[in-house]
Amino acid sequence: MSHVSISPTASALVGLDRARELLAPSDGRPLEAVSWVSAHVTASARTTHRTARRLGLNDETARAARSARHLLSITRLFEQAHAGDALAAGVDDAALHESVVASLDEHRRDEAALLDRIAALSPDGEAAVAAAYRRMLRRAPTRPHPHSPRRGWLGAASFAAHALIDHALDTMDGRHPLSRKAPVAGPPGRWGHYLLGG
Q1: HEC profile of 41-75
Q2: Rg (CA), the chain
Q3: Nearest CA among 36, 18, 5 for reference residue 127
Q4: Angle 58-82/30-46 helices, nearest 10 degrees?
Q5: 105-160 tens-digit pLDDT
Q6: Domain-by-domain residue ranges, the chain?
Q7: Is the pTM of this model over 0.85?
């Protein structure tokens, strides 16, 4: 089997691309799409945006950060609607789905433009950002937190706290949102027996 390589830019957008696949009518896994969007936005803020600001790309970074905040806000409503939250009971599902897809596409354009500018200013930087992004993506929060800080030590603390809580909730819900296939469940271990009352 031949190895297919993808560009660093495509590699640093994998979270958004996976979310877009999951929002397609043929796939239709909205809560998994929410997880990929959430993970992408937080991972990108800690990697791509940080590098872009260091390179002086403040306007481009601000544009991508604005579209990220909008995407997270609308994704939060989308999550509420699909999780049965009473606060989203009267929402038009079709219109909300279209809004999420449009916002995702807009943010992807902003992120791709930012990555292209990073590549133009620092060819080695693009590959480094993509590698850091992929590492951060698997550890990132899996639920939208649109009002959380994304920069500095507050951003780092928010990332760690939300990731810990979200991953614990995923485990309790039996969800594996950032994997292409769910792991096979094995027999419970010592803590599993304890929690099950064994």
Answers
A1: HHHHHHCHHHHHHHCCCHHHHHHHHHHHHHHHHHH
A2: 18
A3: 5
A4: 160
A5: 999 999 999 999 999 998 788 889 999 999 999 899 999 998 888 888 898 899 99
A6: 8-195
A7: no
